[in-house]
Amino acid sequence: MNTHSTSDQLKEIVKEKYAQIADQSREDNASSCCGASCGCSTVDAAIMSEDYSKLEGYVADADLGLGCGLPTEFALIKEGDVVVDLGSGAGNDAFVARSITGEKGKVIGVDFTAKMIDKARLNARTLGFSNVVFRYGDIEEIPVDDNEVDVVVSNCVLNLVPDKAQAFAETFRILKPGGHFSVSDIVLIGALPDGLRASAEMYAGCISGAIQKEDYLQKVRAAGFENILIQKEKKISIPDDIASAYLTKEEFATFKSSETGIYSITLYADKPASFVKPKAVEEKKAACCGPECCSN
User: Is the pTM here over 0.70, yes or no?
Assistant: First the structure.
């Protein structure tokens, strides 16, 4: 079974693409598919990304135009909260979150692209923020302790993770009982044509890594979350020249006339306040472990 190797290959595709993006300007990134260059002639810069510029804490140098929503706007962050941003990039959402948590809070950005971490750390130093840190790490194994975090945010990143169930399990693990997440992500309704799903460019560009909306919600439920709420939903319109670049004429015609949809959703969920981590089964003591090993 080569599932593990396939997962590693997909991660490398995303890592390489986002390392390239880290060296580009926001204008270059925003004029492409969720930041990944698609080689298309005319692309709406707002295909997926949303305008952060009016949000408090916005830092233009940290905005690479890679998101598909405004999760921090919906995340119910409070002053003093500990916030984790999964797939933090150059720090855009982390800095917006910091404007809400204030000096008493802490924001931890996690990303597995070294160049993004370097860029985010430089931005934090330039801004003089001592309570915003960026850690190199994989979302399937988040470098944060159990029950440490009040709020988790993420923007158009979890769909790029091969093992989404593990990503949500890890999100659940790091949240305090009663904590919550708000993530913006890409999901599907209906079957995406093979030509789009198979494309590495489209995978790194946020679309082909997406799964069915109900499957996505089920993985959140299976991780143990409750009070799941779609805070915002928006259908993504892919320009003809992008779709046609990956599909045959017949596939393109079918795709355009079908009900298949690509959606940006911002999703909220709670970790139950009553959650108690199950205790490990205690090891039997060497002495008096039963009649088979103890003498009278």
Answer: yes
